[in-house]
Amino acid sequence: MQKLNQQLDKLIGRLENALEFKDELNNLISAYPFNEYEYIISNLLAKNKLTYDEYLDLRNSYINRNLYLYIFEISAPRGFGDKWAFGHLMQLVPTFERPSKKIDPEYSNQYDLILKWDSHIIKIEVKASRAVDFERPDEPLYVKALSSDLDRPFDMNFQQIKPKCADVFIWIAVWRDKMRYWVLSANEVATNQHYSKGQHRGNIGEGQLHLNQDNINEFAKYETESTNIREAVISAYKRQNDIN
């Protein structure tokens, strides 16, 4: 939104009565879908200060910068972490399956997905988080959502991590304009210096890991493209079980 505001402010400067127009905006009463941005753009178009092609460029660049903003509007944590993240990964990798006691008699919701590979059943734990401005704790998620090119502090807390319950972990991080994926073996999570054991008192074998602007580059070797997640899971499983 900051980029859009800057662009619109520059366009408003084309108006002969730019200062008066800004005063109008301060007193503008809005009701969805008629808001400040609709008012600015319609005025610029009507007064021939914004061409239709310029409007399309403005619109398309905003959409490209905010492709995943809708994900920040998923309010319930379980709706984001459980429903959206699982569905997203199963779209990317159709061979992922939801586990069941029929497949794993000992299954009791301790991991999220499975991948059948050769004679192996790989147990996968999924963690997802959204990049939000750490210094705006009281704002709604969609307001404090960060673009990947902004140099702002963020803190993605992957919680309730249980390395003994899965073979492989997939982490998804969402910015307004991009997603990033990391695939680690359970042992690589458990032995990572940023993994903190004992997230909740009495929960043995459970911990958390904070991914932020200070340590995110340390996980570069685990990062993978969306088109390579299946292969990355198999590679992590091989590392976990020392399979050549």
What would your notes on this structure say?
With 244 residues, the protein is α+β, with helices and mostly antiparallel strands. It has 2 domains: 2-65, no CATH class; 69-241, Trna Endonuclease, Chain: A, domain 1 (3-Layer(aba) Sandwich), CATH 3.40.1350. 34% of the residues lie in helices and 20% in strands. The chain contains 8 helices and 9 strands. The strands form 2 sheets. It has a 6-stranded mixed β-sheet with strand order 1-2-3-5-6-9. A 3-stranded antiparallel β-sheet has the order 4-8-7, with no helix packed on it. Strand 2 and strand 3 form a beta hairpin. The protein starts with a helix and ends with a helix. The model has no long low-confidence stretch (mean pLDDT 90).
